[in-house]
Amino acid sequence: MLWSDPENEPPQEMRDMQAMMRRAGIVLALAMVLAMIVSGVR
Length: 42
What we know:
Keywords: Membrane, Transmembrane, Transmembrane helix. The chain crosses the membrane at residues 20-41. InterPro entries: MmpB-like. This protein has 42 residues and is mostly helical. It is built from one helix and no strands. The protein has one helix at residues 12-41.
């Protein structure tokens, strides 16, 4: 990459989407753990 190349910064919408997907993944992982605990109790 040359020093004269433009900054390779993703647009704001893409960054927002990545943050939303990350949060959705965390919520999904927590839901899976909770489902395993509940199914293990029964």
